Amino acid sequence: MIDTPQKPLEALQWRKEIEKYGNIIYIINSDHHQDHALGNYFFEGDIIVQEGTMKKLLDEDRIKLCRDWMKLIDPQSEYLMDHYFVRKPRFAYENRMTLYLGEEIFELIHIRGHTQNETVVYMPREKVLFTGDNVCTNGIPTLSECCLKGWLEALRLMEEIDFQELVPGHGEIGNKDSLRDFYGKFRMLINRVKEKIDKGLTREEIIKEVRYEDTVHINYPRETSEFFDRSMEMSIAQLYDGLIKEGTSLL
Predict the structure, then answer these.
(1) Has this prediction a pTM greater than 0.90?
(2) For the chain: N or C, fewer Cβ within 10 A?
């Protein structure tokens, strides 16, 4: 299983459906964010993550963070969090790891993109690439923890992989054109920030002025709007800091 749903009721529905086909042996989290890892609690199977992701999952405030998030996005599921705890990953890898399950092969690749500790999963026999939030087919995700230079490098790396189907962090299943489309939109946003820097605007001015349409979280409850407003400011700040650190010729 690659990533788990963040809403407990959805997790239980997924579990019921999956059990029709067999048992979960492994869970691979593409990153530590709640929308990819909060649901680990509701599934069996050993958890596999990148080393940095494991440290994030085991932060001492993680349980409170997950419970507070559930109150915000899905209060009707709050009762399912009464005994919630963070399942410790069984395996952690640094750069690359390969799983051989019967005839299936899963290649885990560490990249720095949406976060510093992303896992991309490639199935070479099936020619399927699971990108996590490094590619979303329905918009640009939160950028508040991103590594700008690493993300651009990772997108170029992923384009070189021989895949036919792309499973994104958010949105519909796509293909190589979906990756290129996301790359183009991402570059346009980065260029907007770069143009403001070139015009001499301050960090604070750029954070206030630059926005992008958050279609990734469009269906989240209204109560989350304040959270995502702050996240937008943090995202633009992260792009600014990345461009200043790496140089505005990064593209």
Answers:
(1) yes
(2) C
CA atoms within 13 A on the CB side of 250: 23
Percent share of the chain, pLDDT over 70: 98
Task: List the one residue out of 46, 49, 21 whose CA is nearest residue 36.
Answer: 49
Element (H, E) at 251: none
Question: Quick one: CA dihedral 49, 50, 53, 55, positive or negative?
Answer: positive
Query: Distance between CA 25 and CA 225 in Å, rounded?
Result: 37
Mean pLDDT of the chain: 96
Spelled out in words, what is the top-level CATH class assigned to the domain 8-187?
A: alpha beta
Give 220-240 pLDDT, tens digit per residue. 999 999 999 999 999 999 999
Average pLDDT for 47-53: 98
| Separation of alpha carbons 16 and 21, rounded Å | 10
Name the residue with tokens 């989350």.
Answer: 224
Which stretch of DSSP H or E encloses residue 242?
A: helix 225-246
Distances in Å between the Cα of 251 and the Cα atoms of 116, 235, 246 are 19, 18, 10
